[in-house]
Amino acid sequence: MSDWKTTLTANLPDAARAYLDGKRLDEVECIISDLPGIARGKAVPASKFARQDYFHLPDSIFYQTITGDWGEAAGDGGFIERDMVLKPDMSTATAAPWTGDWTLQVIHDAFDVAGEPIPFAPRNVLKRVVDLYHAKSWQPVIAPELEFYLVAPNIDPAQEIKPMMGRSGRPAAARQAYSMTAVDEFGPVIDDIYDFAEAQGFEIDGITQEGGAGQLEINLQHGDPLKLADEVFYFKRIIREAALRHNCYATFMAKPIAAEPGSAMHIHHSIIDMDTGKNLFIGPQEGETDAFYHFIAGLQNHLPAAVAVLAPYVNSYRRYVKDNAAPINLEWARDNRTTGIRIPISSPNARRVENRIAGMDCNPYLGIAASLACGYLGLIEQKRPTKQYVGDAYEGEESIPAVMGDALDLFDSATALHDVLGPEFARVYSIIKRTEYQEFLQVISPWEREHLLMNV
């Protein structure tokens, strides 16, 4: 084995090394998440990757909207597309098992030419929040739940999205939550998801059928926020590639089908005291601590301003519908899926707080960072939450912004949240999202043509 192969293999995680055992590595995909969560980067020959310590991309990748247009977020220096220095995090090296040759993916971190982290790079935003926890000797632990739809191929945006055909030759059925028969309908896709995940060294905690037609949920094991955000970033690609092998699309839109439930990324949180190794939410007699209630209060008080990050598109707000499997407020309760903040049944050691607000369309780095930021502010401010909600929270008052514009207004005024996520990130994010919102407002929808053309 040549020197570059020996050096490269020595730095790989076990799963990547096992994937390449006896194989010739052809290519390395050097990737980074942009604001929407799209993988940007370069594919390079393996021999070149082994010899390079970094590569360059322009900072303008973070000024681009989901449509490919640009927001005026470059700042005083102007839109000159400065080069960033992208350095590989070899702990993220993993297989790309759907490719025709032997390929690895490696997530990179973004720095400026002076070596400072780019403040609006999503992975850096999450690192900033986790570092604030560590400064208090707290280790945040999270577990994400990924909901998505498998749908029929859709190459005409004017056509409505329809459920995929299952193995039986019938369209996927709705209202079959937790049905194993429904899961079996997608068996070949799920098999590939498992195979791809195993090749990449990821552990799936379980796959279930959700309430929508062709809607599935994947649960991941709890762990370090950055590691789990990397896995969600990778999993979106895994699921899309598995679906394409079987003539269907995987979509992470918050609300792809009007009459069906939306797709969430529920985030479970607990905090470990780094000095004692104990869950910060457990008291001396295994009761609930002040920190437990402070964390809930932080979510209640700061999530309204963070919704613009957790629900990043106009479509995201179509998910918050009464009696349709998504919260409409920030009430909290134990073992109650109608509330925005849920305390699942668990042993004291596994005590955690679940944020049910985030949509699956959010950038996983930013969604997890924003959720942790709200909890962090709660721990710092030490306020108490409202009383635990009793009953169906859909009967309570709505307290989540109903449209993107309102959410952005709340985000722009949330200086405490900006201080945690980073003021420069907040500035750039707001500009890009307002640009997208203005783009959307210029679109004439089929509803407007149908009901207004001849009637007003």
Describe the structure.
By secondary structure, this protein is α+β, with helices and mostly antiparallel strands. The protein folds into two domains: 114 residues, Ubiquitin-like (UB roll), CATH 3.10.20; 324 residues, 2-Layer Sandwich (Creatine Kinase, Chain A, domain 2). The protein is built from 13 helices and 14 strands. Strands 7, 8, 9, 10, 11, 12, 13 and 14 form an eight-stranded mixed β-sheet that branches. Strands 1, 2, 3, 4, 5 and 6 form a six-stranded mixed β-sheet that branches. It is globular, with a radius of gyration of 22 Å. The termini are far apart. The relative contact order is 0.12. The mean pLDDT is 92.
Question: Could you give a quick summary of the protein structure above?
Answer:
The protein is α+β, with helices and mostly antiparallel strands. It contains 13 helices and 14 strands.
Number of individual domains:
2
The CATH first-level class of the largest domain comes to Alpha Beta
Low-pLDDT parts are: none
Alpha carbon gyration radius: 22 Å
Number of strands: 14
Helix tally equals 13
Topology-level CATH name of the largest domain: Creatine Kinase, Chain A, domain 2
- The second-level CATH architecture of the largest domain is 2-Layer Sandwich
Task: Please outline the helices and strands.
Elements (H helix, E strand, L loop, with lengths): L2 H8 L3 H7 L6 E7 L5 E7 H6 L3 E4 L24 E6 L5 E2 L7 E9 L10 H14 L2 E14 L28 H6 L1 H14 L3 E6 L5 E6 L4 H20 L4 E3 L13 E9 L16 H21 L21 E3 L6 E3 L9 E3 L8 H18 L22 H9 L2 H7 L1 H19 L4 H7 L4
Parallel strand pairs: 1-6, 12-13
Antiparallel strand pairs: 1-2, 3-4, 4-6, 5-6, 7-9, 7-10, 7-11, 8-9, 11-14, 13-14
